[in-house]
C-alpha cells in the first residue's frame, strides 16, 4: 500500500534541484542545503515521469529556484498562506523526492490529514512499511501501535517467527536455509525500491551512477530468486551447513533487538508521551480502530515523537490537542532540543502563534514560490518587516531628493559651461550624470556594512549599486463580517441560570451517570465577548449544545431573546462540508450557499458575501467543494451562518484548519464586529485578541473615538470549565496557561 502512495507522490510531485558534484561519504543527516529547488504538483501521470518533460502549464508550481537550508538541531516554523504548498514541501522532503537527501536519513512525518505518520527510512520505502500496523487493524492497541512505529517490532517479530519455525524444525533439514533466503530476499526487495527511486530522481553523472547501481542490484535480486527456486538436490552440503548456521545467527540477532529490557524502556517512554498528549491510562489498551479521528491523530503524533529521527516534521501537530497537550508538546520539543545528545532538526507547520513563538528558533517563509529565512519568532519577524520597509522608504525618499538636486546642478553646469565655453563645468556635469546613472542605489549591504558591488550584487549588472527595492505588502487576508442587526427591545441574548446536565442512566447498568455540568450561570448580552477554556472532556461541547438548544438541561433554565438569531460554527464543520462535497462531486460554494439561502438573497448578494470572506469570483463558482482547502471551507461554513445576520456567534475551535495569517484576520474581524461572540478554543491568541481585546502592538495607533467608546462598553469575560463547574478567570487565559505549566512540569518529571 505504501509503495503505491510513494509512486503516486513521485508522479504528481515533480522535483528538480541543483546537485552537489562532491561525493560525501558520511553526511550530516540532520542538515539539508539544497539550491535551485523546483517543486510542481501535477494532476497525475505515470510513475517515473521526469520533471523536465513537463511544462509549467501542466501543474501548479510550488517552488521556483528556491533554497532549502536546514541546520542540524534547529527548530523551524514553515509559514505561508493556505494553499501555497506547505504540506507538499513537507511531503517531498519526507518521501525523499528531492535529489540530494541521503537515503539513510531518518525522517519522521506527521501529516495533517493522514491516518498515520510516515517514519523514514522504513515507512518511506514502501514495502518496508507493509508489515507495520495501520489504524485499521482490528486488535492492535494504542500502546502497541506507538511502540511498533518506534521499533518496527511487528516486522522484526515476523522475521523471528519465520526463522524460529524453520530452525526448530526437525522434519526438514533444508527449512532454515529456505527461511534465511526468504528473509534476505524480502529485505533486498525493500532496498531495491529505494535504489529505484534514487535512480529515477537523480540526473547527470550521479544519476548515471545510481542507475548502474540499480542494474547491478537487480542482478542480485535475480540471483536471489534463482537461489530460492533451487531444489534440495541442487544445494551442496557445505552451503546447507553454512546457511543453516547463518539462519541461527540471524535469529539470535533479531531476538536481541526485542529483549524485554529494551522494549520495556521504549514502552515506558511511549506511556509518558501518550499521557502528555492526554491519553488516560485505561485508553492505552483500546484498539486503535475504535478511536475517533482526533485520538488517532494523537496516536500518530505519539508514534512520531517516539521514533528516532534525524529530521522531525510536524504538520499541524496541535490540531485536536487541548491546551494541556499543547503546552506539554512545547516543553517536550524544547527539552528534546536542549537535553538530547543528538537532537533532530525540527520543521513545524502550525496555525498556533504561541506554539510557534515558544518552540521555533527560525522561520521559513514561503511566499511567491520561494523560501526566505528569519532568525527569531513571529513577533520579531513582523516588527523587522515593518522596520525594514520604513527604513528603505526613508532611504528612497532621501535619494529621490538627492537625485532631483543633482539633476538640477547638472542642468545649471551644462547651461553655464555652454554659455561661458567652460570645459570644466561640462566635465563636472558629465561626472555628476554618471554618478546619477550608475552610482545611486543601496548604500548599505544586508549586513549593515558599506555596499560593495563585487560582494553584495552577484552577476552582471549595468550599475554599481542595487536599486532600493521596497518589499511589496503581501496581499491582506480579506474577512469582512456583515453587521449584526439591532434587536427591537433590550434584554440578554442568552441566559443560563443554575443549569445542570447529566446523561440518563442506562437501565441495564447499576452505575449512575455522572453529572457533566452543574450550577452553571451565564448571561450574554449584545456585543459581549465571552471565552470558554478547559481541557478535553470538561463539558464544553455540552455547554454549547445547551446554548444552541440542541440539548435540554437536566436542571435549571436556559432562555433566549425571542428575536435572537444565533450562528453556530461546529468544530466538525469542515469535515461535514467535505463529506457533502464527496457525495456531490460537482457542488461548489456558490451552488451550496444558493441552495441554503433558498431565494432570500440573489446571486449578486451571495457572491458579495462569499467575496467578503475571501471566496471571490471563480473560487466560489468554479472550484468544487472537494477541492477547497481547509481554510476556504471554514470561510464557506461562516458564510452559511452569516447570511442569516446573527446577533450571536458561537464558535467552537474555528482556528483548526486556518493558517496563522487567516487566524489573525478572523480575530481582527471578530474584534470589531458589533454582534456578540462566544469563543471556545485552545488557541490562546484567539482568546486574547477576540475576548480579552488584546491589540496588535505594531498596528495602527489611530482609532476612532466612537470605536473606543464601543470597546469600553463591551463585556469581556473568560471562563474556565472544570469538573462540571464554571468560574471566571480574572487574569484571563494567562491564568489557565500558568496552571497548566505546573501540571506539565509534573508530567515531564514523572
From TrEMBL:
<dbReference type="Pfam" id="PF00005">
    <property type="entry name" value="ABC_tran"/>
</dbReference>
<keyword id="KW-0547">Nucleotide-binding</keyword>
<protein>
    <submittedName>
        <fullName>ABC transporter-like protein</fullName>
    </submittedName>
</protein>
<dbReference type="GO" id="GO:0005524">
    <property type="term" value="F:ATP binding"/>
</dbReference>
<keyword id="KW-0067">ATP-binding</keyword>
<dbReference type="InterPro" id="IPR003439">
    <property type="entry name" value="ABC_transporter-like_ATP-bd"/>
</dbReference>
<feature type="domain" description="ABC transporter">
    <location>
        <begin position="494"/>
        <end position="726"/>
    </location>
</feature>
<dbReference type="InterPro" id="IPR032781">
    <property type="entry name" value="ABC_tran_Xtn"/>
</dbReference>
<feature type="region of interest" description="Disordered">
    <location>
        <begin position="112"/>
        <end position="137"/>
    </location>
</feature>
<feature type="domain" description="ABC transporter">
    <location>
        <begin position="34"/>
        <end position="393"/>
    </location>
</feature>
<feature type="compositionally biased region" description="Basic and acidic residues">
    <location>
        <begin position="434"/>
        <end position="443"/>
    </location>
</feature>
<dbReference type="InterPro" id="IPR027417">
    <property type="entry name" value="P-loop_NTPase"/>
</dbReference>
<dbReference type="InterPro" id="IPR017871">
    <property type="entry name" value="ABC_transporter-like_CS"/>
</dbReference>
<dbReference type="InterPro" id="IPR003593">
    <property type="entry name" value="AAA+_ATPase"/>
</dbReference>
<dbReference type="InterPro" id="IPR050611">
    <property type="entry name" value="ABCF"/>
</dbReference>
<dbReference type="GO" id="GO:0016887">
    <property type="term" value="F:ATP hydrolysis activity"/>
</dbReference>
<keyword id="KW-0677">Repeat</keyword>
<feature type="region of interest" description="Disordered">
    <location>
        <begin position="417"/>
        <end position="443"/>
    </location>
</feature>
<dbReference type="Pfam" id="PF12848">
    <property type="entry name" value="ABC_tran_Xtn"/>
</dbReference>
Amino acid at each position: 500500500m505504501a509503495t503505491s502512495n510513494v509512486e503516486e507522490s513521485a508522479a504528481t510531485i515533480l522535483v528538480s534541484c541543483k546537485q552537489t558534484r562532491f561525493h560525501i561519504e558520511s553526511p550530516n543527516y540532520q542538515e539539508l542545503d539544497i539550491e535551485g529547488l523546483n517543486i510542481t504538483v501535477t494532476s497525475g501521470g505515470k510513475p517515473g515521469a521526469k520533471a523536465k518533460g513537463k511544462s509549467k502549464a501542466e501543474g501548479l508550481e510550488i517552488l521556483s529556484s528556491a533554497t532549502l537550508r536546514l541546520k542540524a538541531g534547529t527548530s523551524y516554523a514553515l509559514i505561508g498562506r493556505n494553499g501555497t504548498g506547505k504540506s507538499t514541501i513537507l511531503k517531498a522532503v519526507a518521501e525523499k523526492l528531492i535529489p540530494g537527501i541521503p537515503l539513510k536519513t531518518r525522517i519522521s512525518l506527521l501529516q495533517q490529514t493522514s491516518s498515520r505518520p510516515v517514519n523514514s527510512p522504513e515507512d518511506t520505502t514502501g514495502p518496508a512499511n507493509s508489515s507495520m500496523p495501520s489504524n485499521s487493524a482490528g486488535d492492535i492497541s494504542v500502546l502497541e501501535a506507538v511502540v511498533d512505529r518506534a521499533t518496527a517490532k511487528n516486522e522484526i517479530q515476523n522475521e523471528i517467527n519465520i526463522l524460529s519455525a524453520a530452525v526448530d524444525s526437525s522434519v526438514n533439514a533444508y527449512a532454515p536455509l529456505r527461511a534465511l533466503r526468504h528473509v534476505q530476499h524480502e529485505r533486498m526487495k525493500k532496498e531495491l525500491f529505494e535504489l529505484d527511486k534514487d535512480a529515477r530522481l537523480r540526473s547527470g553523472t550521479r544519476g548515471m551512477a545510481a542507475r548502474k547501481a540499480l542494474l547491478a542490484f537487480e542482478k542480485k535480486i535475480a540471483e536471489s530468486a534463482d537461489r530460492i527456486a533451487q531444489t534440495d538436490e541442487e544445494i551442496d552440503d557445505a552451503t546447507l551447513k553454512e546457511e543453516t548456521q547463518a539462519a541461527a545467527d540471524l535469529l539470535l540477532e533479531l531476538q536481541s533487538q526485542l529483549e524485554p529490557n529494551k522494549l520495556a524502556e521504549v514502552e515506558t517512554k511511549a506511556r509518558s508521551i501518550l499521557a502528555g498528549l492526554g491519553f488516560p491510562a485505561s485508553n492505552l489498551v483500546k484498539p486503535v480502530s475504535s478511536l475517533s479521528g482526533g485520538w488517532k491523530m494523537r496516536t500518530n503524533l505519539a508514534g512520531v515523537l517516539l521514533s528516532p529521527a534525524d529530521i522531525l516534521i510536524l504538520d499541524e501537530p496541535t490540531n485536536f490537542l487541548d491546551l494541556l497537550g499543547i503546552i506539554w508538546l512545547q516543553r517536550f520539543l524544547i527539552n528534546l532540543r536542549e537535553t538530547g545528545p543528538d537532537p533532530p532538526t525540527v520543521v513545524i507547520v502550525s496555525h498556533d502563534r504561541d506554539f510557534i513563538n515558544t518552540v521555533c528558533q527560525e522561520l521559513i517563509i514561503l511566499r511567491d514560490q520561494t523560501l526566505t529565512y528569519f532568525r527569531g519568532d513571529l513577533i520579531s519577524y513582523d516588527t523587522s518587516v515593518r522596520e525594514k520597509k520604513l527604513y528603505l522608504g526613508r532611504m528612497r525618499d532621501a535619494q529621490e531628493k538627492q537625485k532631483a538636486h543633482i539633476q538640477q546642478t547638472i542642468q545649471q553646469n551644462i547651461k553655464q559651461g555652454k554659455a561661458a565655453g567652460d570645459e570644466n563645468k561640462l566635465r563636472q556635469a558629465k561626472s555628476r550624470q554618471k554618478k546619477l546613472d550608475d552610482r545611486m542605489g543601496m548604500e548599505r549591504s544586508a549586513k549593515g556594512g558599506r555596499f560593495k558591488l563585487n560582494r553584495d550584487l552577484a552577476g552582471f549588472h549595468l550599475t554599481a549599486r542595487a536599486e532600493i527595492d521596497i518589499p511589496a505588502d503581501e496581499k491582506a487576508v480579506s474577512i469582512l463580517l456583515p453587521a449584526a442587526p439591532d434587536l427591537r427591545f433590550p434584554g440578554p441574548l442568552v441566559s443560563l441560570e443554575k443549569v445542570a446536565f447529566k446523561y440518563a442512566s442506562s437501565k441495564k447498568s447499576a452505575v449512575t451517570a455522572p453529572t457533566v455540568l452543574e450550577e452553571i450561570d451565564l448571561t450574554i448580552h449584545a456585543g459581549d465577548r465571552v471565552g470558554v477554556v478547559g481541557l478535553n472532556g470538561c463539558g464544553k461541547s455540552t455547554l454549547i449544545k445547551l446554548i444552541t438548544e440542541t440539548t435540554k438541561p437536566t436542571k435549571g433554565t436556559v432562555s433566549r431573546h425571542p428575536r435572537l438569531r444565533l450562528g453556530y460554527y461546529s468544530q466538525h464543520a469542515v469535515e461535514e462540508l467535505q463529506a457533502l462535497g464527496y457525495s456531490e462531486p460537482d457542488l461548489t460554494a456558490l451552488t451550496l450557499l444558493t441552495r441554503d439561502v433558498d431565494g432570500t438573497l440573489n446571486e449578486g448578494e451571495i457572491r458579495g458575501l462569499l467575496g467578503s470572506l475571501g471566496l471571490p469570483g471563480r473560487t466560489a463558482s468554479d472550484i468544487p467543494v472537494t477541492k477547497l482547502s481547509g481554510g476556504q471551507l471554514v470561510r464557506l461554513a461562516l458564510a452559511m451562518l452569516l447570511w442569516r445576520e446573527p446577533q450571536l456567534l458561537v464558535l467552537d475551535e474555528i482556528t483548526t484548519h486556518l493558517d496563522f495569517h487567516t487566524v489573525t484576520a478572523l480575530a481582527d474581524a471578530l474584534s470589531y464586529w458589533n454582534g456578540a461572540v462566544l469563543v471556545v478554543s485552545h488557541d490562546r491568541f484567539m482568546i486574547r485578541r477576540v475576548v480579552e481585546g488584546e491589540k496588535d502592538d505594531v498596528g495602527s495607533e489611530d482609532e476612532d473615538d466612537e470605536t473606543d467608546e464601543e470597546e469600553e462598553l463591551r463585556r469581556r469575560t473568560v471562563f474556565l470549565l472544570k469538573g462540571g463547574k464554571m468560574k471566571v478567570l480574572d487574569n484571563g487565559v494567562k491564568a489557565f496557561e500558568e496552571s497548566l505549566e505546573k501540571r506539565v512540569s509534573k508530567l515531564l518529571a514523572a
